[in-house]
Design a protein that fits this description.
Layout: H1 2-51, E1 57-62, E2 68-76, E3 79-88, E4 92-98, E5 105-112, E6 118-119, E7 123-127, E8 132-135, E9 146-154, E10 161-169, E11 175-180
Parallel strand pairs: 1-10
Antiparallel strand pairs: 1-4, 2-3, 2-5, 3-8, 5-6, 5-9, 7-9, 10-11
Length: about 180
């Protein structure tokens, strides 16, 4: 009987040791699994961030309650270009140039289509009655275009820029335009 008791005690001891080893092995595997999942999620997050292109563009926000028509001018590799019209509803924004800006200086002209006001400046460029993309800024009338005064914006070679058209009068009596780097 003493031998059976000893064998039973040894068997129970062996089972307890096996349980402890199994628990240790399970914890170790669980730890390895958690470590692997953390590494994988970190890799996915880095891949997602690096795969997302940087958002850069030239945007115009219309802080008025009126519909506004906007034209933009800039220097391209081929020379001066003016483009328009973007119609921007009140209290909304629109991207005029998508992607990283390639010029330091951009020029803007806008008209309030409901109240007749405008946001302009001292730099003369060509515009048209309807949608346009015009190469060159000289001889506007001779080429069948109109001339408008554009406001210059020095973006400081930033990748993106935002201009906000407001009702607030500027010192010269025209509506105020503010330009900022949105980043």
């Amino acid at each position: 009987m003493g031998t059976q008791l000893a064998e039973k005690g040894t068997a129970m001891l062996i089972l307890r040791i096996r349980d402890v080893i199994m628990k240790f092995a399970w914890r170790r595997r669980a730890h390895q699994l958690v470590t692997a999942l953390c590494a994988l999620s970190g890799f996915i997050a880095v891949a997602a961030v690096s795969a997302t292109p940087a958002h850069a563009d030239f945007r115009v926000c219309n802080a008025t309650q009126s519909l506004v028509g906007v034209g933009i001018g800039y220097r391209s590799k081929a020379g001066w270009v003016t483009e328009g019209w973007w119609h921007i509803e009140g209290s909304t924004c629109k991207t005029l140039i998508e992607g990283q800006l390639s010029s330091r200086y951009y020029y803007l002209y806008a008209e309030d289509s409901e109240r007749g006001g405008r946001w302009d400046g001292p730099v003369n460029m060509c515009v048209a009655e309807k949608e346009f993309k015009i190469s060159g800024v000289s001889d506007c009338f001779a080429r069948g275009f109109q001339r408008a005064g554009f406001q210059e914006y020095d973006t400081g070679e930033q990748a993106s820029w935002m201009v906000q058209l407001t009702d607030q009068p500027a010192t010269d009596g025209t509506g105020a335009i503010t330009g900022t780097n949105p980043q």
